[in-house]
Amino acid sequence: MRISLTLLILIALLFSSCEREFDNNPDFMQDSKTEVFGDNQLLFTKIFQLSGSNTYLWFDIRNEIANFSKPTIGLNYTQDEIARYKQIDLRGRLYSYDGTSEELTIMDYPLDMATGTDIPADLVFGFSRKQKEGCEAISDPGQRRQCERTFVLKIKRIAFKTIDFTLEKGVKGTYNNRSLVIESGDQEALLTN
Fold first, then answer.
1. Cβ pair 95, 64 in contact under 8 A
2. What is the H or E stretch that residue 125 is in?
3. Is the pLDDT at 46 greater than 60, yes or no?
4. Alpha-carbon distance 88 to 92, whole Å?
5. What is the domain range of residue 39?
6. Checking DSSP bridges between strand 64-65 and strand 150-160, what pairing results, if any?
7. Rounded distance, CA 54 to CA 171, Å?
8. pLDDT tens-digit profile of 92-143?
9. Does the structure show a pLDDT above 80 at 180?
10. Number of structural domains, the chain?
11. pLDDT at 26
12. Coil, strand, or helix at residue 104?
């Protein structure tokens, strides 16, 4: 009787002193539905291989680009008539996709183009199939599949929200006595999954 009473008290103390792991887990306590930015049906959990490299653009859950393989895009621009180049690292960046306008926005990317110091900018790309029609007429199944799965990522504009300055591709813009023109930032991407 004494052993069973002691055992019963120990079990009661064990349960009373232990809380569920989830009750103290900050990720569980703060868990909520993730806001989906834009029309995510085309890109959600899709993986695109960037042409000319072994890097992949993986659109992960929570509107984030995965750190899968260090996806980068080159951005050519001129600043005060001098050719410049930036390597845009997309790892871990939040994105939004608008299916109607076929625009992919990389949100709040730190850029120093306009002010000389990094400020958040939205990088807006056109993102759509390279060839919208005619792929079904290709007789070779491999070429048809590549045609259907090849997309093009084309820079359209950069919007610096904090300074209310937007730079359109090919259009000269001036801010803080700097003249800027986006020349190119285009990349082909093959849908792999």
1. yes
2. strand 119-129
3. yes
4. 12
5. 34-191
6. unpaired
7. 32
8. 899 988 888 999 999 999 999 888 889 999 999 999 888 877 787 888 888 8
9. yes
10. 1
11. 57
12. strand
Within-domain flag for 70:
yes
Tokens 């390597």, located at residue: 87
* pLDDT at res. 129: 87
Is residue 58 over pLDDT 60? yes
With a CB cutoff of 8 Å and minimum separation 6, the contacts of 175 are 114, 115, 160, 163, 165
Long-range Cβ contact pairs of 127-132 (< 8 A, separation 24 or more) = 127/97, 127/102, 127/103, 127/151, 127/152, 127/153, 127/154, 128/102, 128/152, 130/188
Q: At 71, phi and psi to the nearest 5? A: -70, 130
- Token pair recorded at residue 13: 């103390």
DSSP state of 69: S
- Does residue 23 lie in a domain region? no
Rounded CA gap, 3 and 22, in Å? Answer: 33
- Please report whether residue 21 resides in a domain: no
Amino acid identity, residue 52? G
Whether 15 is covered by a domain: the verdict is no
